[in-house]
Amino acid sequence: MFDGTAVSARHILLTPPADDPQAAEQAKIKLVGFKKQIEEEVTRGLAQLPAGTDNLAREKARAKLTEDAFATIASKESACPSKAQGGDLGYFLRAGTMVEPFAQAAFALKPYQMSDVVQTHIGYHLVLATDRKPGKDVKFEDVKEEVREVFYDRLRDLMTSRLRPRAQITINPAPKN
Asked: How many CB atoms lie within 10 A of CB 152?
């Protein structure tokens, strides 16, 4: 999180209405279907390679087929403006750029690996990591303040989410003079 590691990813976003659980379930099913469709297309493409193709060439072909199939579906189906670029989001850092569940999923993937369905407050995503740029070694002393800020942000969010359901908020009218 603090060393500058960046991931490049594509995604397909579906945004069902927030108050419609049936539409949300349909979106999840649709994304699972897209993932299966992409995997099948990659398998068909790999089957067309010559029998003696070495592992490196097979892996390059698999990466190209995966990215092309993903980009095709993203450009047709995604609700994100990135659909014009086949769902390409470019490089982003672990913290601060993307919403947490999305960033967590993207950083857990190896290049040309697809996620399962990821839910965020924006909607439902299917994520394809396309590259990873390693960061540089950092000393704790150099990032201590950033670590403290992240810790405080997470602690505040955790406390707020736990206390909000039990909170009683009373608004008193302004005193009359």
From this structure: 10
Classified by CATH at the fold level, domain 6-133 comes out as Chitinase A; domain 3 (3.10.50)
Name which of 125, 46, 34, 117 is nearest 73 in CA terms. Answer: 34
- Delimit the domains of the chain by residue range: 6-133
How much of the chain is helix, strand and coil, in % rounded to 5? 50, 15, 35
pTM of the model: 0.74
Instruction: For tokens 């405080």, name the residue.
Output: 152
Query: Sheet of 6-14: strands edge to edge?
Result: 88-93, 6-14, 124-133, 118-119
Walk along the chain (177 residues) and give the pLDDT tens digit of each residue.
566 678 999 999 999 988 889 999 999 999 999 999 999 999 999 999 888 889 899 999 999 999 999 999 999 999 999 999 999 999 988 777 888 899 999 999 999 999 999 999 899 999 999 998 876 776 777 767 877 887 888 788 889 888 888 888 888 888 887
